[in-house]
Amino acid sequence: MKNFIRPIIIGNWKMNLDYKSSLSLAKKINLGRSQKGIKNDVVLLPDFLPLAELSLKNKNKNIFYGAQDTSPFSSGPYTGEVSLENLEKLGCKYILVGHSERRQYFSEDKIMALKMENIIKNSKLIPILCVGENLKQRKNGQTVAVIKKQLQEAFSKIKSLSGKKIIIAYEPIWAIGTGKNISAKEAIVVHKKIKEMIVAMFKNNLPREFGVIYGGSVNVNNFKKFKGSEDISGLLIGSSSLRAKDFLKIANNFFYV
Ligand code: PEP
């Protein structure tokens, strides 16, 4: 397993933008990303409608596209679902899975194993698996135990990650959209634990590339504190990814060194 990956900055647009605004935001971000000499990757996660056009027409080697969620099924009679195969055919490279909003509002904790199994076994998409504790769990000192349970559940149907690239996004739920943040030191402790857990779970079948990124109220004023550690492989950004100027400032300045 490669010890660290190229830094990755992910913008999760959620259900915040209409079709035209999504295309316009993507255009601005594209203009602000040079094609050469950039030492990190940017991933944009629009909703499914603009995703098709943006991903299909993408020519920027430093920008990748992905979906905000996946179906637990590969294809067939599942009304309302979008298949991974379809996303891959559009050129998508990443797939977000287990975001706390999906776990909270769509009761997805119980189908995490099926979703991860579908991604790992039926696609080449790179999963960005979100984990993290709520405030009560944090106050009770359960952060590591909660994450361990989430990882064990998510990977319970998978025996090997050989050859795969896997991203885990550590997102303390109480820090999402609240303006509250953790220190980089605290993030590093949790990220190292996550890495240890993956190593313990997959021993001889480790992923080819593996990184843990941080998410939760990252903005132009605080992103620098997460910079510079190989244990923080990148950032998952919600609100600040909706402002091209802010997102570009973070994306174009987030490196290990
Ligand atoms: C998120 O929803 O994953 C997130 C990190 O949002 P925000 O940056 O707005 O806290």
The overall pLDDT average reads 96
For the termini, the CA-CA separation is: 21 Å
Low-confidence stretches: none
CATH class: Alpha Beta
Describe, in plain words, how this protein is organized in 3D.
This protein has 257 residues and is α/β, with parallel strands linked by helices. The chain has one domain: Aldolase class I (TIM Barrel, Alpha-Beta Barrel). It is built from nine helices and eight strands. Helix 3 links the parallel strand 3 and strand 4. The structure holds phosphoenolpyruvate. The site of phosphoenolpyruvate (PEP) has 13 residues, from strand 8. Phosphoenolpyruvate binds next to strand 8.
Give the structure's gist in a few sentences.
This protein is an alpha/beta fold and 257 residues long.
Keywords:
257 residues; alpha/beta; TIM Barrel; eight-stranded parallel β-barrel; 9 helices; 16% strand; globular; binds phosphoenolpyruvate
Write the layout of secondary structure elements.
Layout: E1 8-12, H1 19-31, E2 41-45, H2 48-57, E3 63-67, H3 84-89, E4 94-97, H4 100-105, H5 112-122, E5 126-131, H6 135-139, H7 143-154, E6 165-170, H8 184-202, E7 209-215, E8 234-237, H9 244-251
Parallel strand pairs: 1-2, 1-8, 2-3, 3-4, 4-5, 5-6, 6-7, 7-8
Helix pairs in contact: 1-9, 7-8
Bound molecules: phosphoenolpyruvate.
